[in-house]
Here is the input.
Amino acid sequence: MKVHVLAVAAHPDDVELNCAGTILRHLDLGYSAGIIDLTQGELGTRGSGPLRLNEASRAAEILGVSFRENLGMADGFFRNTKENQLQLIRKIRQFQPDIILTNALSDRHPDHGRAARLVTDACFLAGLVKVETVDENGNPQVRWKPNSLYYFIQDYFHIPNLIVDVSKYMEKRMKALKTFTSQFYNPGSNEPDSSISSHDYLEQILGRARTFGRQIGVEFGEGFTVQRAIGARDLMTLI
Here is the structure.
């Protein structure tokens, strides 16, 4: 199954928090998209791995992506190892995405930067013919290198190199995000407070999107950074 856009994130809810509007926009344009979560987020202050898997599944249904998979890496402890690179290379070659969206290269949570570097290396290695992998049936996979890799902006503020207009999709993005009920404000919860469980956190998410949107003259935007220049074939399509 080939998809045009693949989001790869360290934790369930990273996608919904940072790039789900971009996914929704491209689905609306007729492209296909999928999500891969590296971990279950089992070390999170609130909830549990199985609960967050269930929440992620419900969010994926709302978004309408072609698939959502979890690679089961160790939350907080996964590293950019050969084993993890090969696991991700197999997925990149399986789904053959043109664009990959992934975590911020530098952020408050160390998993985010580690995930970004793992994805960056896997994207490069997936394009090398001498890196040999097989699919789940034991068949050799062909090499594949995505055309573009974009890093979404998370807790730390980074100046975006690219902003996507997601104004039309913000309501649906927030609906998908709110399926992660274990993570966000709940006055009846007895679980410890976390950095994202405050009563105004979701308003902060909306505020960030409004800030990015204002920079390109729209209501809501999602920002991304890149490691290489962004090219264009038609300047008339730029905002």
Observations:
- The first helix runs from residue 14 to 18.
- Helices lie at 14-18, 20-28, 49-63, 82-95, 110-125, 170-177, 201-215.
- The chain has one domain: 5-237.
- The beta strands are 5-9, 33-39, 68-73, 99-102, 148-152, 162-165, 221-225.
